[in-house]
Amino acid sequence: QANVTDTYDVVVVGSGAGAMSAAIFAADQGMSVLIVEKSDKYGGTSALSGGGIWVPNNHFFKARGGEDSYDKALTYLKASVGDQVDEKRLRAYLDNAPKMMQYLQENTRLNYTVAERYPDYYQHLPGAAPGGRTLDPELFDTTALGDEVEHLQPASPTTLLLGKIGWTARHAHKAMAKERGWRLMIVWLMLRYKLDFKQRRKTKRDRRAALGNALIASLRASLMDRKVPLWLNTDFSELIETNGRISGLIVKRNGQEQVIQVRKGVILGSGGFEQNQALRDKYLPKPTKVEWSATPPGRNTGAALEAGQALGAATAMLDWAWWAPTISVPKEEKARGVFAERAFPGAIVVNGEGKRFVNEAVGYLEFVDEMYKDNIKTNGKTVPAWAIFDGHFRFNYAMGPLMPSQVMPDSRLPKAWHKTVYWKADSLEALAAEIGVDAAGLKDTVERINRFAASGNDEDFQRGGNVFDRYYGDSNVKPNPCLAPIKKGPFYAMRMDAGDIGTKGGLLTNERGCVVREDGSEIKGLYAIGNCSASVMGTTYPGAGATLGPAMTFGYIAAHDLAKQT
Ligand code: FAD
Q1: Are 29 and 564 in contact (CB under 8 A)?
Q2: Which protein residues are within 6 Å of ligand 1, measured from CB?
Q3: How far is CA 39 from CA 252, 328, 551, 554, 560, in A?
Q4: ipTM score of complex
Q5: What does the pLDDT look like over 265-300, one tens digit per residue?
Q6: Which of 70, 127, 217, 315 is least surrounded by CB atoms within 10 angstroms?
Q7: 513 and 554 in contact (C-beta within 8 Å)?
Q8: What percent of the chain has pLDDT over 70?
């Protein structure tokens, strides 16, 4: 029998962006709050994300003269999500997301700016915006965290310049699209990092947290301002229901089981189940592997899902993830997502028959969804898929962990990457033989894409045909910034797995963030946000930041709802 050790108004489980924001909102509503986090680091996947937050009709964009409206955003969300999600939840999102961000910007250390040119992902749908809905973090000086910086989940090297220097999404895009002044900007960022002598004497870690790390560091500092306790090494396993409402939860803190009581309720924000192979096998399409996930190993194993199910909670979309193609790199603890590179001109992605199966520049969720669909058609020849590119591409652009060879020539790549991360040969035929892809199919496909590159028209998949595709294209390449011929040896291949950045199905909630049963009745005092809840975005990914946005917004909604409970 575990002992009751503590009582709070609200306990928040997990320390991702949704959970931490929810704790801030709850504290600011005058409630006593505790955060429990299973690992010895706070921040979860949120800390190693891009930190982008999708907030249609936000005040940042309007302040700069941008145009958007609630109705336009609702049209877009309804066109994307369809009837998979109750419209009340869509409306709750659109009503509260702008308020949530404005509150954080004005009352906490969070500092965001609007990505005016980052387009929504589904440009063909009514209400899609060409920019202004994604918000990105500015750099955050971690000095404010003091020693707490040691417990901050480190950023993924993929999100940092040269794997260590903090930069914003704005900087990263300028470099990737090779916009004017990009070289100078990189030199300036490198110098600023190197000349920070005080920090350099201590550590390689940049003083300036970036992207998801900036988001989490600023939330953590804001929680410290409010003296909200955060218990690390505290593993939640079970909910306690008394007289029809949640009265507490069972955790193991530093190995010791204990009961924490709640006066008002529990907000579950402990991520999805992507790190649990048994649950992946049970729910996700096959083949599926924990190792393909770009999320921190061992963390999000579905504890909230199982605890909710034990109380009769309804679930939805358990067969879906926030898909993203990934590549596993030797000695790295998690896979890397391949987000932007697929749009760069001169690389294509093929299946085992050597055929393209998708517009490579589409959003990452659709990309893997198409991989799975094609895998059925090809009888298992599309997972993994293969990115194919030539010496010209390799010199000029990054692909996964391969920085352009003008800065990282093949001779400087780790030996262990050859034939695990990338394959290389003098001819397309030889490359096809190395990776087990049909050589004639590949040759045909390359001839075809070379014709499309010359005309600028991808007759098969319309790559580069809209503003979203072109966002990551090379603005110097004409006539289509996403298409270039593949003809200059040596030729390269990189493996792409059917990965994810978290699962997106989970406990079903209503428009107040409250977990419901199959009959729609609420489990009183139980709220779920982020990837442990079934996404308000249904099976879609309408824009950059469409996972963090809902996690934080439903944290805002849940905290305000809890404040009203007696
Ligand atoms: P997490 O942030 O993973 O937090 C869950 C926390 O709960 C973890 O710290 C975990 O340790 C803890 N936990 C788990 N089980 C327990 C337990 N039993 N007891 C206590 N604690 C527990 N999304 C965007 O919207 N915008 C982006 O720019 C973006 N970029 C991304 C880039 C990369 C490289 C990756 C990998 C993902 C990106 N994503 C982005 C996706 C986004 O990061 C995740 O969908 C989001 O962080 C999930 O938030 P969460 O709060 O549900 O889970």
Answers
A1: no
A2: 13-19, 36-39, 44-46, 48-52, 156, 235-236, 269-271, 294-295, 299-300, 303, 322, 337, 501-502, 530-531, 544-548, 551
A3: 11, 23, 20, 23, 28
A4: 1.00
A5: 999 999 999 999 999 999 999 999 999 999 999 999
A6: 70
A7: yes
A8: 100
Q: What does the alpha-carbon distance between residue 236 and residue 301 come to, in Å, rounded to a whole number?
A: 11
Q: Looking at domain 326-496, does it have CATH number 3.30.590.20?
A: no
Q: 168-175 — which CB contacts under 8 Å span 24+ positions?
A: 168/136, 168/137, 168/138, 168/139, 168/210, 168/211, 169/50, 169/51, 169/52, 169/115, 169/118, 169/136, 169/211, 170/113, 170/115, 170/136, 173/471, 173/472
Residue ranges of domains in the chain: 161-205, 230-321+500-564, 326-496
Pinpoint the alpha helices (H) of 463-547.
467-471
Phi, psi of 359 (to 5 degrees): -70, 110
Local structure of residue 358 (DSSP, 8 states): S
35-55, pLDDT tens digit by residue?
999 999 999 999 999 999 999
The helix (H) or strand (E) run that includes residue 496 is strand 491-496
E strand residue ranges, 243-325? 245-253, 256-268, 315-316, 321-323
The alpha-helical segments, DSSP class H, found in 124-167 are: none
The verdict on domain 230-321+500-564 having CATH code 3.50.50.60 is: yes
Q: How confident is the model at residue 1 (pLDDT cuts 50, 70, 90)?
A: low
The secondary structure of residue 489, as a DSSP letter, is S
Which residue(s) pair with 4 in the sheet?
259
Q: In angstroms, rounded to a whole number, what is the distance separating the alpha carbons of residues 40 and 302?
A: 18
Banded pLDDT at 182 (limits 50, 70, 90): very high
Between the alpha carbon of residue 189 and those of residues 47, 113, 175, 203, the distances in Å are: 21, 19, 12, 17
Q: What is the pLDDT of residue 177?
A: 78
Closest approach atom of ligand 1 to CA 270: 7
How do residues 193-235 score in pLDDT, each as one tens digit?
A: 999 999 999 999 999 999 999 999 999 999 999 999 999 999 9
Residue 495 — pLDDT band, cuts 50, 70, 90?
A: very high
Beta-sheet pairing, 256-268 with 522-528: parallel
The upper half-sphere exposure of residue 309, i.e. CA atoms within 13 Å in the direction of its Cβ, equals 12
Output the six-digit token pair for 542.
Answer: 């309408």
Tokens coding 96: 């509260």
Residue 334's CB is within 10 A of a number of other CB atoms, namely 22
Structural element, H or E, at residue 171: helix 169-176
Q: How far apart are CA 145 and CA 391, in angstroms?
A: 45
List CB contacts of 253: < 8 A, sequence separation 6 or more.
36, 231, 233, 234, 235
Ligand 1: which atom is nearest the Cα of residue 19? 51
Indicate if the pLDDT at residue 355 is higher than 80: yes
- Name the residue of 24, 173, 237, 548 whose CB sits within 8 Å of the most ligand 1 atoms, as the mutation to test its pocket: 548
